[in-house]
Write a structure and sequence with these properties.
The complex is a heterodimer.
Chain A (H helix, E strand, L loop, with lengths): L1 H57 L6 H16 L3 H23 L2 H5 L1 H36 L3 H4 L29
Helix pairs in contact in A: 1-2, 1-3, 1-5, 2-3
Chain B lengths: L2 H33 L2 H20 L1 H9 L1 E3 L6 H14 L6 E5 L6 E4 L7 E5 H6 L2 H16 L2 H30 L6 H41 L3 H13 L43 H12 L14 H4 L5
Parallel strand pairs in B: 2-4
Antiparallel strand pairs in B: 1-2, 3-4
The chains are: A mainly alpha, B mainly alpha.
Amino acid sequence: MLWLWILFGAVALVVVLGAFGYNRLVRLRNEADTGWSNIDVQLQRRGDLIPNLVEAVRGYAAHERGVFEEVTKARAAVQAAGTPGAAGSANDMLSAALGRLLAVAEAYPELKASDNFLRLQEDLTDTEDKISAARRYYNSTVMHFNTAIQSLPWALVARPLGFRDKEFFSAEGDTAPPQVSLTPAT
Amino acid sequence: MTLQQQIRRNRLRSGIVVIGFVVLLGVVAGLIGVVLDLRLGVVALVGASLYALFAIISSRRMVARMTGAQEVGPDQLRPLRRVVENVSIAAGLPVTPDVRIVDDPSPNAFAAGIRPQTSYIGVTTGLLRVMPKRELEAVLGHEISHVRNRDTYLMTMATIFAGVIALIADVGFRMLVSGGRRSRRGGALVLVVAVVGLLLAPYAALLLRMSLSRRREFLADQGSAELLSDPEAMALALRRLELDTTTMAYADASVAHLWVESPTSRVESERRGVLALSNLFDTHPPLEQRIAALEESGGFRLPETLPPDRPFAFELGLAEE
């Protein structure tokens, strides 16, 4: 009789702990999903800025066709990317292409001084900052989620329950902020 | 300790603070009722409860008044708003907290609000004039961490309750002094117990409030370092606060614990009085300790002198070259 009670208690304990653990995994997954949609919002915003920026530069430098094409292609690649990893590398390519576009713009003082261009450039910088902020949040939620489903006991049952490892959003090139040298100039 | 554990712990502590307040309120009201007048005790209890309720509802405005934080129009200080936006995205907050400005030459910042959705961040004009962007970001990261960790919730509740208890005790004590001479019922013993109780209760409440906030500062510093993945920025910001000797023109002791750097440590406010005796009563750990904690976890060492940097105020158009 006593053994039955102990068995019953053990089962109840497992069920309660299991429920708490499962809820935790669900919460972590939702956090990661929210983190991803934050990135998505910013990528979208950046994508919306690009046609205007391209038009603004085209008005002054119509012959720089190669750069425009590159930017447009990279933008389409970001929008077509299906996974965070792919979106991340496509996004890095877009950043590089935009860098070249802005370099082209450098050669046209009138363009650089125009209000429209200045505002676009400011918005672009802001969006890039926000993408990198959203990336930091998303990557940290993914790390927590992945760690949770890779460690025991959840490593055994996470997959059958439908929890899959999530991809990071391109950690490359953004692992650490630029470290400013702190040695005072002499 | 993970973030979720910290948040859960803050919620639990908030619960304890609320229950503790109710008990303490009952004790103080009971003392008044026994020593002076039963009706007065009831009045004190009901009055204090109503006042606390009112304070919780209007806490946003009360904190704004006590700190002198002004709302700014949506089109003003866009660069500052952007920095706040970026930091709250990195923290994964559902809503970006509003920004308010305190017109004060001393660099400081605070966060207030009961829920993350209704929180706001106050920064002094001094902070904008002193801090470069990187360090300003770190300070905002510290405040956003307070919001995310639900520190602001707990601290707001603690402030309100401490204020209410101090108010009742004050009123009760005055009545005891003036009324005690006329009617000498109860005897000396009750009077002593009552006086001790009435004196101790506010200090108990105050101590509770202080002990709540000190470890939080370390956690918020770490939180900021993680949000920006830049522990050095937070340490630099703290060092800059330490080196700055401007005192706050207006510092209310009852909101001292909300600021990133204790505003009262440099202001000899009359309300500080006995509290100055011991650092047990300090709202904040010394800046040196906070910097040391960041240096240890981040594995770096700050130089003696700070790098000369361009303050953020230039980008806001608040300062001239």
